Amino acid sequence: MTLQDIVTVLETYRGREKTMRTVQYGLLFVTPLAKENVRKALQTVSSQLGVARVILRLFDDLPMLQYSLSCIRNSKGKDRILKYLEVVNTLVDQLYFPVEHIAWARDIKVLRGSSKTLWNVSVLLWGLSLVLTILRSLRHIFLMKQPTARASTKEKEKVEALYRAELLTVIMQAADLLNALNWLPHRPWKKSFPVWQVGFLGLVSSLIGFSKLLSLQRS
Fold it and tell me: Where are the alpha helices (DSSP H) in 3-152?
């Protein structure tokens, strides 16, 4: 990764968001290695990066709406199961943003009321979105594994590359899903994850997302 690659990433909104997310979870991952006073500082910086990402998402509603509408428009001719998963996924994603915005506004006392329930709902919507994305990727993998007659070598290589990309997506979303389940008020397990484990799972997801972003920019 060259200096120009780094600059190119940081000049874009998605690049900065991915960078902030990677640093946010990376700091949590290394906290056990630090002294107690440094540990608190790392967690504070990580928390502030998380807040900054929430603020950045205040401007994601319209781009998300445009993406959702394009997905619905382009769903014709697709596999029926994929089409339904995609439509439900985009609706869930569209609901997530206003819930998070209102929760944040209540946190900073712009709106009255408690934000706790709304944050729990936003985590639930995020988790549902992750499950739907995983199911979509698994469906893509299933369809790609169907035998194709007289496929050229170039086509096979393209399918193999898409297959690897979908596998990475499953791993990325599964890591985030574990964190989402951990943050639910009624998690499937008794004890919540230690800070380093939350950081590890988030870092795995962030690095995969970062590598996908770099691949898109280089292509």
Answer: 3-10, 13-30, 36-56, 61-73, 80-107, 116-144
Residues 6+ apart with CB under 8 A from 192: 182
Q: What does the pLDDT look like over 96-154, one tens digit per residue?
A: 999 999 999 999 999 999 999 999 999 999 999 999 999 999 999 998 887 665 667 77
Residue type, 205: S
H or E element, residue 172: helix 153-183
| Dihedral angle computed from the Cα positions of residues 98, 99, 103 and 106, in that order, rounded to the nearest 10 degrees | 60
From the CB of residue 137, how many other CB atoms can be counted at a distance below 10 Å?
A: 21
Positions in the chain whose pLDDT score sits under 70: 1, 75-77, 147-151, 219
CA–CA distances in Å: residue 166 to residues 67, 81, 211: 20, 16, 13
